[in-house]
Amino acid sequence: MNPEPLVELRGITRTYGHGDVAFQALRGIDLAIAAGEFVAVMGPSGSGKSTAMNLLGCLDTPSSGAYRFRGIAVEQLDRNQRALLRRRCLGFVFQGFNLLARTTALENVELPLLYRGEPVAERHAAARAALQRVGLAERAGHTPAELSGGQQQRVAIARAIVTNPLLLLADEPTGNLDSQRSHEIMELLVALNREQGITVVMVTHEPDMAAYASRCVHFVDGRVDRDSRQTSCS
Amino acid sequence: MLLNALLLALREIRRNLLRSFLTVLGIVIGVAAVITMVTLGNGATRMVAEQISSLGSNLLMVMPGQRLGPGRDSAGAPKFRIGDVEAIRQQVGGLQAVAPQVGSAVTLVAGTQNWSSTVNGTSNEYFTAGNWTLAAGRRFSDDEEQAGKAVCIIGQTVRKELFGSASPLGNSIRVKSFSCEVIGLLAGKGQGGMGQDQDDTVLMPLNTVQRRLTGSLDIGGILVSMRDDADTATVVGQLRGLLRERRKLAANADDNFNVMDTKQIAETLSGTIGTMTALLGAVAAVSLLVGGIGIMNIMLVSVTERTREIGIRLAIGALEQEVLLQFLIEAVVLSAFGGLVGIALALLACLGLATLMGMPFLFNPGINLTAFAFSAAIGVVFGYFPARRAARLDPIEALRHE
């Protein structure tokens, strides 16, 4: 494994509010994730796993502590620099899919490339390739309303991987899907992780989904409670 | 980045066609109203100016009586005589033509046709003073003027009523007890500044009218045409002095005649119409402003409605200024498009209304450009605040928004 981790959190805290109403969501997190890992993040509600995901996704900044992404001190970046980092290195998959309504699958998938300023031809080719990769090539012209939940989530995954990200962050990607679709999505994520070497960090409640990961991190009360590298988490 | 933002904005407009259409409607109506008002106002001003100038430029009309209009008795004031006309011609400087005028309402008969019109007894100088030209035939000869021969020059309306489209030259018209020969046809002038038909007229030598129709030596009025370089105030001053002297008025007595300046009438009328145009334009501008507020309203609602979408865009790496630009372009494209449709609508409305009201249609590039620039500016101004609000959203909050 790569000796320098892709992501490194040291003594991260995150406090919301001030004074009496202050709420400490993270109370000192130390975590290193190497390139190529598939990490499942588990823990009860309010344990800080979503806050940690937002920090990892550069959507939020820590109250204290250091976050290194490939050696870059993320906590020192401003809003736009973090946006550029997300654009270049990160992919997001959400529980609620978060596709643009009344917009075709192809247009949804090519959106990140549009923000990167890719020329039309490459944009379309890459978006079609990504849809092909998730098995939805023939659905490119459909809008989210015309797709099933599982298909929508696969479009969302295509959108997340179209930029060849280093890190794919999935926040309960199977939370809104039935069991069979959930397993299909997980197999897709595992394949992306194995075949394309995309590092995946996934929050989940369900142990059988976490079982697909190569490493499992348990959060309790804003701290890392257990961190196990194994083939099955529980 | 600009191109991308434009593409995104256009996709967004296409996604919400009905909403976009309703948003644009306010701007369309505002722009169309402003342009229509101003264009029609300009047309009306031009029409009045043309009508007044068709009377003759730098023209003074001298009438007996203390004041024009009702409420003053002008019957007591002495009329003018031909001697007054001669005196003005000789003693007042800066004049181009001085023409006497004696009007008489008559019934004209030619063959089986008859027509009521006004005979105007005057001299050849009337052509210069009244800005008339001949369409056919000739002016009066000296002999005809001196001897008061039975000859006449008729206007287009009289020609049409009595002779149809045939040439009237050489034909006779019976006026009261005598018959007179048509020697000329005036070129048409159309409607006058007060709405009267200027072409409904018959010109005869002054002597003919005085001897055969009115039976007196009185002259109803004098048309005085000034040279272009003449100063109106000076000429009017000289004219009044001369006439007061000839009419033996005491120093403290009021004038028993008055001098009307057509240029001044034209300016007054144009000024009034200009004020009306400005007023209507201002009302229309308010509706344009309301249209702009409509755009802001829709954009603000749309920011709230699309909070989650903005969150998605920010999460996948859209920069703050890219979101700002997209929303701004959406607003500008909508309002600029509304401006264009408004201009097209205004042109149609102006063409239709100008034809309907018999006014000239003056395409005014200035007001069209101004209205378009204004509508685009409305897009920028009223689009900016919603756009900034969208761009500054916290992506985490925005994604959580339902």
Automatic annotation (TrEMBL), chain A:
<dbReference type="GO" id="GO:0098796">
    <property type="term" value="C:membrane protein complex"/>
</dbReference>
<dbReference type="InterPro" id="IPR017911">
    <property type="entry name" value="MacB-like_ATP-bd"/>
</dbReference>
<dbReference type="InterPro" id="IPR003439">
    <property type="entry name" value="ABC_transporter-like_ATP-bd"/>
</dbReference>
<keyword id="KW-0547">Nucleotide-binding</keyword>
<dbReference type="InterPro" id="IPR017871">
    <property type="entry name" value="ABC_transporter-like_CS"/>
</dbReference>
<keyword id="KW-0813">Transport</keyword>
<dbReference type="Pfam" id="PF00005">
    <property type="entry name" value="ABC_tran"/>
</dbReference>
<keyword id="KW-0067">ATP-binding</keyword>
<keyword id="KW-0046">Antibiotic resistance</keyword>
<keyword id="KW-0812">Transmembrane</keyword>
<keyword id="KW-1003">Cell membrane</keyword>
<dbReference type="InterPro" id="IPR015854">
    <property type="entry name" value="ABC_transpr_LolD-like"/>
</dbReference>
<dbReference type="InterPro" id="IPR027417">
    <property type="entry name" value="P-loop_NTPase"/>
</dbReference>
<feature type="domain" description="ABC transporter">
    <location>
        <begin position="7"/>
        <end position="234"/>
    </location>
</feature>
<dbReference type="GO" id="GO:0046677">
    <property type="term" value="P:response to antibiotic"/>
</dbReference>
<keyword id="KW-1133">Transmembrane helix</keyword>
<comment type="similarity">
    <text>Belongs to the ABC transporter superfamily. Macrolide exporter (TC 3.A.1.122) family.</text>
</comment>
<dbReference type="GO" id="GO:0016887">
    <property type="term" value="F:ATP hydrolysis activity"/>
</dbReference>
<dbReference type="GO" id="GO:0005524">
    <property type="term" value="F:ATP binding"/>
</dbReference>
<protein>
    <submittedName>
        <fullName>Putative ABC transport system ATP-binding protein</fullName>
    </submittedName>
</protein>
<dbReference type="InterPro" id="IPR003593">
    <property type="entry name" value="AAA+_ATPase"/>
</dbReference>
<dbReference type="GO" id="GO:0005886">
    <property type="term" value="C:plasma membrane"/>
</dbReference>
From TrEMBL, chain B:
<dbReference type="Pfam" id="PF02687">
    <property type="entry name" value="FtsX"/>
</dbReference>
<comment type="similarity">
    <text>Belongs to the ABC-4 integral membrane protein family.</text>
</comment>
<feature type="domain" description="MacB-like periplasmic core">
    <location>
        <begin position="20"/>
        <end position="240"/>
    </location>
</feature>
<keyword id="KW-1133">Transmembrane helix</keyword>
<feature type="transmembrane region" description="Helical">
    <location>
        <begin position="324"/>
        <end position="354"/>
    </location>
</feature>
<keyword id="KW-0812">Transmembrane</keyword>
<dbReference type="GO" id="GO:0005886">
    <property type="term" value="C:plasma membrane"/>
</dbReference>
<feature type="transmembrane region" description="Helical">
    <location>
        <begin position="278"/>
        <end position="303"/>
    </location>
</feature>
<keyword id="KW-1003">Cell membrane</keyword>
<feature type="transmembrane region" description="Helical">
    <location>
        <begin position="21"/>
        <end position="41"/>
    </location>
</feature>
<dbReference type="InterPro" id="IPR003838">
    <property type="entry name" value="ABC3_permease_C"/>
</dbReference>
<dbReference type="InterPro" id="IPR025857">
    <property type="entry name" value="MacB_PCD"/>
</dbReference>
<dbReference type="InterPro" id="IPR050250">
    <property type="entry name" value="Macrolide_Exporter_MacB"/>
</dbReference>
<feature type="transmembrane region" description="Helical">
    <location>
        <begin position="366"/>
        <end position="385"/>
    </location>
</feature>
<keyword id="KW-0472">Membrane</keyword>
<dbReference type="GO" id="GO:0022857">
    <property type="term" value="F:transmembrane transporter activity"/>
</dbReference>
<feature type="domain" description="ABC3 transporter permease C-terminal">
    <location>
        <begin position="282"/>
        <end position="395"/>
    </location>
</feature>
<dbReference type="Pfam" id="PF12704">
    <property type="entry name" value="MacB_PCD"/>
</dbReference>
<protein>
    <submittedName>
        <fullName>Putative ABC transport system permease protein</fullName>
    </submittedName>
</protein>
